[in-house]
What we know:
heterodimer; A: alpha/beta; Rossmann fold; six-stranded mixed β-sheet; four-stranded antiparallel β-sheet; 11 helices; B: alpha/beta; 2 domains; globular; binds magnesium ion; EC 7.-.-.- (chain B)
Amino acid sequence: MSDxxxxxxxxxxxxxxxxNEGVVALNGINLSINKGEFVVILGHNGSGKSxxxxxxxxxxxxxxxxxxxxxxxxxxxxNIWHIRRTAGMVFQNPDNQLVATIVEEDVAFGPENLxxxxxxxxxxxxxxxxxxxxxxxxxxxxxxxxGGQKQRIAIAGVLAMKPECIILDEPTAMLDPSGRKEVIxxxxxxxxxxxxxxVHITHYMDEAVEADRVIVMEKGNIILEGTPKTVFxxxxxxxxxxxxxxxxxxxxxxxxxxxxxxxxxILTIEELVSAL
Amino acid sequence: MIIKVEGLTHIYNPNSPFETxxxxxxxxxxxxxxxxGLIGHTGSGKSxxxxxxxxxxxxxxxxxxxxxxxxxxxxxxxxxxxxxxxxxFQYPEHQLFEETIYKDVAFGPINLxxxEEEVDKRVKxxxxxxxxxxxxxxxxxxxxxxGGQKRRVAIAGVLAMEPEVLILDEPTAGLDPKGxxxxxxxxxxxHQDFNMTIILVSHSxxxxxxxxxxxxxxHKGRVSIVGKPKDVFKKADELEELGLGVPQVTYFMRELKKxxxxxxxxxxxxxxxxxxxxxxxxxxxxx
Lengths: 276, 287
Ligand SMILES: Nc1ncnc2c1ncn2[C@@H]1O[C@H](COP(=O)(O)OP(=O)(O)OP(=O)(O)O)[C@@H](O)[C@H]1O
Ligand SMILES: Nc1ncnc2c1ncn2[C@@H]1O[C@H](COP(=O)(O)OP(=O)(O)OP(=O)(O)O)[C@@H](O)[C@H]1O
Ligand SMILES: [Mg+2]
Ligand SMILES: [Mg+2]
């Protein structure tokens, strides 16, 4: 058993289209993510983040190059079932994920497909719905829920499958601040306590601060990579790329420019308070 | 008042097991040219409320009055209302339906009965306004775009109608930071240049803090707080109880104050925080 959960070797992906010449969404990407690692992926709209996620989940296969999940080649049809069981995915739009007519059944859908014992399924469904604070909606119809509520159900569905690796494509985009905090805490807990590998795609910079590694994509390439400290301390570069830094990082940066003596790598409220 | 909501209650699926009271006696007024931020926890009724404002949903009881016209009344002219009140949906997928991006954005203006030239001009302007490359993208299918690109097209479709009231349901969810800033800047500009009335639904306290004149906080189908951002964001504890929060800089200033620093408690933007801290440090002769 190796330590690597996800490996991309020189991966290119092109969306073919009849009307035009097609879109190259990924351009020769190399990437290796270790087991138990918490990675955040940032980047512009259209930079290839969702395409990357879909490749890892074997929803699409590379135009050229190789994608391995826990050593399994995603191009080999025989592996697909195992790959999806290893790497669970929360989609960018929950509408694409919700399949059943009742919330509880929707969350049970994944574990059922894994052939898990009904009693265990019940337990997992309850735990997952509790984790996203949606227990009271278990008998509801998913399509009648609000935007953020749907997003929570989609997250619960993946939690109930207990995959070793979880890929989340903007899971917090429609959540209120406390919901966002809860989801991030749940992800962190799964990572720290159960050593799950996490690949988290987001546009919220304060969520990226929590990761082991930040990967920045642009036009189908990885253009910047490193710990949150090394990435976000380059405030000017990050802004030039068109991304953002947390508000306290920005404040620290502005104060430094005014000649105030504070460290360059402030990422949290606590760090800035201590520095002043 | 361009918008008046009186005793508005909305019950989804009445008399069924799924009966949900999404709005419970909501009263509010929005003046012409106001820039309002609508915030509230998931499921608090924000989307339900704004869909009443252009007649997409009918009240179970109560009234919605737009520019003096009771649009909840029998026989109200909804075509006029939809021209006046433009609504960008929470999920762009619910808004996009044509086979090309051009046709999608042109749909509203064509329905307004505008000349072909005018439609053409507006479509082009709107697509560029949301930061997309018109020539590159006009003939592509909206369904083959990334999440954030779809959202931009959906926003362009409503901007092209040049409504008097622009309502945006979490327009920046899924946008990258640069896209977010550009689009919010355009919205602010529409507000300033044309005195457009804007209602912005958002979960980003940071965006709300730097843009709006007035905040309306929803909680469980009711309006629970109304006020200026500076006043509303002083109530951090109360907002947290409602599932919300305050901008990160506001939390930071609160923390400084807790540790005994004499700083103002109404700071909601990074700019203001900088000024306040410089005042504090320089006032003390430390810098
Ligand atoms: N089904 C599709 N057909 C054709 N092109 C597509 C399709 N899906 C995505 N693309 C294109 O591929 C590129 C990468 O898209 P992708 O969805 O991976 O971006 P993303 O980084 O996830 O963006 P976002 O932040 O907006 O979600 C974009 O240029 C997009 O327009
Ligand atoms: N079509 C529907 N049928 C039944 N109930 C609904 C429907 N749409 C929404 N609801 C319910 O009405 C309540 C208010 O939903 P609404 O979509 O207005 O919330 P919201 O404030 O926009 O939430 P979010 O921030 O998650 O988008 C929620 O409890 C939701 O489950
Ligand atoms: Mg995406
Ligand atoms: Mg909503």
